Structures are given as structure tokens and as C-alpha cells.
């Protein structure tokens, strides 16, 4: 049985559902200002730092919003000069949060977000079809949280994170004219977050937060093989009538450290800055355990266990944003940030392509008494990559372009 049936690219595709694609779209107002975090004006602060709930000006705050995310990736083989472009659908990240202060120094809240995920679709006959044809990744974070005001200028907050996830991935098995689908809709895991929020001066907000890694456990994944001849199925220990096998895996979502500052230069003008540190280094290797299929020919001890090296590295993001109040009802916002890729050119994978990226953002906000409406957009400038992945035999040049837009609503009744 040749290893081409399920190469190391398979595991990269399946498990990158947790890695290589952190979606910075958890607040429309925040996105307009480069997705900075030290803004305690409504419940949208809850995802970034639960301690910020203590400084929301109203006792009850409710927010919700959504985004459209469009991206295209182009890969060119420098030997043949053949160029291939993805046909990705528009992504739709969502968020919602509520914060309530029942007594003076205690706030409770809940946040729902989709911080990891993407859908990438390459042509069915492209040269990397044995690695990926289509990959849909989704994650959902559910976070109950609490914040305690320790002093008039300082608070502490903590949250519990319950995560659910889905992966649906198609690839070709060209040697036998077949296909393989990897699917799991019930992966889950849990983690936590905590932070401190400071307001030592009415002009200055400081946010320090940590979000833990989460091990997403896929216990009932299904691998479906499709071949023109049923005679291939017994070689993999599969039922000829279904061509299916089960798999288990642990899919790690990375930890994140954030320091954010917001300074009011004047009563109408504020500037915000963030520094994020992402613990991608946990992706040293990834393991997929099939029930019966002997796909790992390099593992004589247990050929049903496939191990893939990832070699990810920790990465950083630098953000700078600003807001200006034209009136008490209309706000203009701008921002820019730089996001590092978590892997080198030698570890580039087409399942979740990642680039060193500059992003320009902007938006407007409207405040109508207790109601708020925010609109934001972002344009990404990913830097081209010289792909040299010797493990996958994948070489060439990769480019990308992307833009985002979002609409958010807020309600602070009292």
C-alpha cells in the first residue's frame, strides 16, 4: 500500500481547522480601529477581556454583529508557469455578547464568537488536488464570564470557554482515480481566559488579557474513500459497501496574549494600540488515528496512526487605531495592523494558506441614545511567498488578496 493514498498533507488539512487561520473579526467597532481591544464602551469588550465589563458605562449592554470576508489565493508553479486561483465563498463570522452589572462591583456576561475558521476551494483538477480540493473549517466559542472591580481604577475578569468545531475536507487520490472526504461535526474542547483592565486616569485605558489553548477532541470523525473499483477497499480494511473508516484526533487551538492601550488625546479624539502574541509553537506535530485503514506506511508499529510535522512558530500582531467624534452621534474610525504568518515558506500548506499581512481598516459609528450602529471594513495586503515545502513536494509562488466588511448593533438601555 503506497503512502500516496493518505499523505502527510491529509493531516495538515484536517487539523489546520485549529491552526494557521486566526480570524480577527470579533467586533465591528474594534475592526474599524485595527481590531484593537481596550474599548469598554459596550459588551463587545467581553471577548477581548472579560475584566473590561466592569467599566462599561451602562448596567446592561447587548451587542451583535456579522462580517463578510472575501479572499482569493493564487498559486503559480514556477517550472510550468501554470497559475491556479481559488474560488472561495464569502465567509460570514458572527459575534454576540451581553454584559450585566447586578451590583456595583460585580459584572456577569456571555460571549459567542467564531474566532477560527475558513473555507477554501481550489479547482478539482489543480496540481495540488491530492492535498486539498475543498476545505471547510468552523469553530464556535461560548464564553460565560465574570468581572470584579477591585478598585475604582482596576478590575479582574475571567471566563470559561466551551468550543465546538467542524471540518469537511475533500481531496483527490489520483493514483486510483478516487477521492477522500474527511468530516467531523462534533469536535469539542474547553479552556479559559482572564485579564485585568485598568483606568488609572480618565484619559487612559489599559487591557491585559490571556486566552488559553484549547484541545479540540475529534472522537467520531468519518473518513470516506471513493474508488472506481471496490477491490481497493479490502486493502484498507474498509467495508466495500460504504468505503468508510473512523478516526480520532486532538486538534489544538492556540493561546493568545494581548496588551492594549487607549488614550484620549482630546475629548473627541482617541488612539488605540495592541500587541498580540500567539502560541503557534504547539504545532510541532499533529496525529491522526484511523480505526482500520493502514495509511501510515512509515509507521511499522501501528500503520493506522499518521503523524505529520507542522513546525509552526509563535507569531506576533501589531495594531494601531484611532477614533474621532465628529458629533455626539457620529464617529469616524481608522486603523492598520501587521500580522505575522505562523509558519515559514518551507512549511507552507495550501489547506490554510497564511501570509505576512498588512491590513488597513476603517469605519463609522452612529449613536442614537441607547442604540448604536457600526459599519467597518478592512483591506488586506498579504505579502507573496516563495513556497518550498519539501515534505509535500510543493513548490512555487503564492499570492493572496482579501477584504472584510461588517455591520454591528449595540443596545445599552440603562
UniProtKB/TrEMBL annotation:
<keyword id="KW-0812">Transmembrane</keyword>
<comment type="similarity">
    <text>Belongs to the OmpP1/FadL family.</text>
</comment>
<dbReference type="GO" id="GO:0009279">
    <property type="term" value="C:cell outer membrane"/>
</dbReference>
<dbReference type="InterPro" id="IPR005017">
    <property type="entry name" value="OMPP1/FadL/TodX"/>
</dbReference>
<keyword id="KW-0472">Membrane</keyword>
<keyword id="KW-1134">Transmembrane beta strand</keyword>
<protein>
    <submittedName>
        <fullName>Aromatic hydrocarbon degradation protein</fullName>
    </submittedName>
</protein>
<keyword id="KW-0998">Cell outer membrane</keyword>
<dbReference type="Pfam" id="PF03349">
    <property type="entry name" value="Toluene_X"/>
</dbReference>
<keyword id="KW-0732">Signal</keyword>
<dbReference type="GO" id="GO:0015483">
    <property type="term" value="F:long-chain fatty acid transporting porin activity"/>
</dbReference>
Amino acid at each position: 500500500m503506497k503512502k500516496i493514498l493518505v499523505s502527510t498533507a491529509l493531516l495538515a488539512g484536517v487539523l489546520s481547522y485549529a491552526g494557521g487561520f486566526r480570524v480577527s473579526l470579533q467586533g465591528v467597532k474594534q475592526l474599524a480601529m485595527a481590531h484593537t481591544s481596550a474599548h469598554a464602551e459596550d459588551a463587545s469588550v467581553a471577548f477581548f477581556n472579560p475584566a473590561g465589563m466592569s467599566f462599561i458605562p451602562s448596567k446592561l449592554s447587548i451587542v451583535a454583529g456579522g462580517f463578510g470576508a472575501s479572499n482569493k489565493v493564487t498559486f503559480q508553479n514556477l517550472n510550468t508557469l501554470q497559475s491556479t486561483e481559488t474560488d472561495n465563498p464569502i465567509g460570514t463570522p458572527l459575534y454576540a455578547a451581553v454584559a450585566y452589572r447586578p451590583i456595583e462591583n460585580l459584572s456577569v456576561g456571555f460571549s459567542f464568537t467564531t474566532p477560527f475558521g475558513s473555507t477554501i476551494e481550489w479547482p478539482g483538477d489543480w496540481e495540488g488536488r491530492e492535498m486539498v480540493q475543498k476545505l471547510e473549517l468552523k469553530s464556535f466559542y461560548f464564553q460565560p464570564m465574570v468581572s470584579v472591580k477591585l478598585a475604582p481604577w482596576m478590575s479582574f475578569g475571567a471566563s470559561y470557554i466551551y468550543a465546538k468545531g467542524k471540518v469537511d475536507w475533500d481531496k483527490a487520490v489520483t493514483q486510483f482515480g478516487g477521492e477522500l472526504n474527511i468530516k467531523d461535526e462534533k469536535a469539542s474542547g474547553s479552556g479559559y481566559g482572564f485579564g485585568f483592565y485598568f483606568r488609572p486616569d480618565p484619559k487612559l485605558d489599559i487591557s491585559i488579557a490571556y486566552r488559553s489553548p484549547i484541545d479540540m477532541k475529534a472522537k467520531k470523525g468519518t473518513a470516506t474513500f471513493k474508488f472506481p473499483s471496490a477491490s481497493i477497499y479490502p486493502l484498507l480494511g474498509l467495508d466495500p459497501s460504504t468505503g468508510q473508516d473512523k478516526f480520532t484526533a486532538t486538534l489544538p487551538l492556540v493561546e493568545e496574549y494581548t496588551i492594549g492601550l487607549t488614550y484620549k488625546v482630546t475629548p473627541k479624539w482617541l488612539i488605540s494600540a495592541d500587541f498580540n502574541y500567539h502560541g503557534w509553537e504547539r504545532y510541532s506535530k499533529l496525529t491522526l488515528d484511523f480505526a482500520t485503514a493502514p495509511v501510515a506506511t512509515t509507521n511499522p508499529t501501528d500503520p493506522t496512526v499518521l503523524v505529520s510535522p507542522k513546525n509552526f512558530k509563535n507569531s506576533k500582531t501589531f495594531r494601531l487605531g484611532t477614533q474621532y467624534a465628529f458629533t455626539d452621534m457620529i464617529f469616524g474610525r481608522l486603523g492598520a495592523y501587521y500580522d505575522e504568518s505562523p509558519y515559514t515558506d518551507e512549511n507552507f500548506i495550501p489547506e490554510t494558506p497564511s501570509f505576512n499581512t498588512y491590513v488597513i481598516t476603517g469605519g463609522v459609528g452612529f449613536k442614537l441614545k441607547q442604540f448604536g450602529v457600526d459599519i467597518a471594513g478592512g483591506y488586506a495586503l498579504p505579502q507573496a511567498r516563495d513556497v518550498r515545502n519539501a515534505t509535500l513536494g510543493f513548490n512555487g509562488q503564492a499570492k493572496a488578496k482579501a477584504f472584510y466588511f461588517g455591520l454591528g448593533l449595540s443596545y445599552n438601555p440603562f
